[in-house]
Each structure stands twice: as structure tokens, then as C-alpha cells.
Amino acid sequence: MKRSIPLKLKLTAISVCILTAMCVAFAISTIYSTNGLVQATITTPAISVDESMPAISVDESMLAITSEPSAAVTEALWQFRGTTVLVMLCLIAIGSALTYLFASRTLKPLEDLTERVQHIDIHNLDEGVSIPQTKDEAAKLAQAFQNMTEKLNLSYQVQKNFSANAAHELRTPLAAIQTQLDVFQMKPDRNAEEYTNLLQSIGESTERLSNLVKDLLTFTNEQGIGKKEPVELKPLLEETVFELEEYAATKHIEITISGKGTVLGDDSLLQRAFFNLISNAIRYNVDCGSIFIEITDDQVTIADTGIGIPDEAKSHIFDTFFCVDKSRSRELGGSGLGLAIVKSIIEKHNGYIYVKNNQPQGSIFIVGFNSNI
Ligand code: ADP
Prior knowledge:
The protein is an alpha+beta fold. It has helices spanning 7-42, 60-63, 71-119, 137-186, 192-221, 233-243, 245-250, 267-283, 326-331, 338-348, and strands at 229-232, 254-259, 262-265, 290-295, 299-304, 351-357, 363-369. It folds into 3 domains: 7-43 and 60-119, no CATH class; 137-220, Helix Hairpins (Orthogonal Bundle), CATH 1.10.287.130; 229-369, Histidine kinase-like ATPase, C-terminal domain (Heat Shock Protein 90), CATH 3.30.565.10.
């Protein structure tokens, strides 16, 4: 690879070139002016003779005009030229040394930053970089770099936690299948009922696994909004409720939809978000409970009469893999990704979501859109 020239040497070289050009120009102009001055001096008589002046005796030599400078003048002239060139060279040398010194000192924080950045990797992202006290561009660059590493570190930690949680969630049903198979294999005589029970519980575990993988894929593959077109909320919600009718019937839950509204967005993504919210409202509802869905111009409210959410958990329920009661959620077939997917979809629609308590019991999820039409 071609060796690069350090910035401080480049800056010094540029300064030396400029300094040399200016010094040479100054020396040439000084020497040239001095030559002219000497020439003017030797062609001017020492005393000027005027007709009106009273006659006085003047030494003829004082009136003489010579074109050649005397030996003493020539020597002084050469001495002057020599001194000028010497001073010029000294100025260039001192100027170059000072430029190098200042360039090195000014670029030192950049060199330190470069060295630090070269040693940063994914394992020491949290160590960050030191910010020089200079308040100049180098300090701003270091600060910008520090902000970037902080964001990178945060997103790396989120990814790491996400992967760990995903692995843990995947391991649970797999471990359940493995245990059931081990126990089954150890049995000496296996009857038809035991075979049926085994197949049923393996079926439940694989269904859980496949739901989890589906949610993981949805969450990780979710890109921006595919299309942005007016979406009538009432038919969309009616269709979603129709899909969940069977599930609601298992708990004898009544679902009511009122009002209407239109938002700008992607109907399939919105349907996915409302599907998760309504299926949660069924999952965490009591037997013979109810769900009220109210649509206005810029909001959809989903109120249930279920078990409700404790106040301290309200700010976490939209986090990935968060469950108020893990074993209960698992039992009910939840993956802990449903509300994280909802939040991500709603935010892509320039909207917001929050939860509050229903009276006398249950939760109310409020989904608001800023881009309604
Ligand atoms: P899960 O797949 O476990 O349901 P979600 O992300 O959909 O995951 O929900 C996160 C947690 O929020 C759930 O474990 C549950 O405790 C709580 N939750 C969500 N919706 C409701 C609701 N309508 N009523 C009560 N709790 C709810």
C-alpha cells in the first residue's frame, strides 16, 4: 500500500512553500529597491548649483556625476544582499520549525483519537473516547464519535439481549419436547393412549415454536411501510374480529365495534397490529368478558374487561419478550413479542400507543394516528 504523508507534514510543506515564496518576493523587491536607491544616489551631485546663489568656490569633485558606484558602495551593496538572503533563509527555517511544532500540537488530539478508534471493537464499545478540552473541530469530532459509539453500544446491547431472549424462548419448547421423548423412551410398555398424549403435547410445543418463529421473523424482517394509502378502519377491524371469532367464542367473549375513521398507511401491517391487540384482549380477558372497540377520526380504542396490567409494568409491556407473568403468558401461548410488533407498526404510521386502566377492571389500549385524513 502506498505510504501516506502525515497531515502535519503536509501542512508544514504548504506553509514552507508559502513562506518561501513570500520571503523570496520580499528579498527580491528589497534588493531591487536598494539597487535603485544606490543608482539614484550616485547620479545626484552632492551640491546642486543654482544661478541665483551667490558665487562660492566649490570643489569640482562635489559637482561630479558618476554612473559607477564606488568600491565601498559596491561592497556595502553586496553585504546588504548577503544579509538579506541570510535573514530570509533564517526566517524560512524558523517559520518551518514553528509551523511543524504548531501543526503537531494542534493535530495531537486527532492522532490520539485515531489511535483510540483503531483499538475500539465490539467488546470495548462502552469505553468510549476521551474528549479534548480544546472546544475546536478535534473536540467536536471526538464528541461526535463518542455519541456514535454510545448509540452503537446501545443497539448492540439491545441486539444481544434480543438474541439471548429469543434463544431462551426457543429453547423452552424444545426442552419440553426432549423431556417428553426421554420419559416416553424409558417406559417399558407404551399403550395407545400414551402415544396419543405424547403426540398431542409435542404438537402443542411445535405450535408454540412455530408461532414464536413467525413473530421473530415479523419483528426482525419488518421494513418500512410498503404502501401508503387511505385505509378504512371499520372494515379492517371487522375483518380482524371475524378472524378471531372462534378464539373469542372459546371464552364466550363479546366484541363490539363502533365509530369509523380512515388513516393513511399499509392495511396489512395495520391489520397485523390490531390482530395482536385484539387477540391479547381475548387472551388476558376473563370468561364471558367483553371487548369494546371504538374508532374516531384519529384514534382506535380497544377496551377489555380482563385481568388488567399493573401500573409498574405499563412502561415495559411494549418491550420485546416482556411478560407480566411469564408462566401465565406461556400457558396462554404468548411469545412476548406481540406488543413490540404493534408498537413498531404504529410508529411507522407516525402514530402512538399507550395503555390505561379500564373501569371497573381490564385495560384500554389507545392507538393514535397523527397522519389521519
Ligand atoms: P404476549 O405474547 O406474552 O402476550 P405481548 O407483547 O403481546 O406478549 O404482551 C406483553 C405482556 O403485556 C403480556 O405478557 C401481558 O402480561 C401484558 N398484556 C398485553 N395485553 C394485555 C391485555 N389486554 N390485558 C392484560 N395484560 C396484557
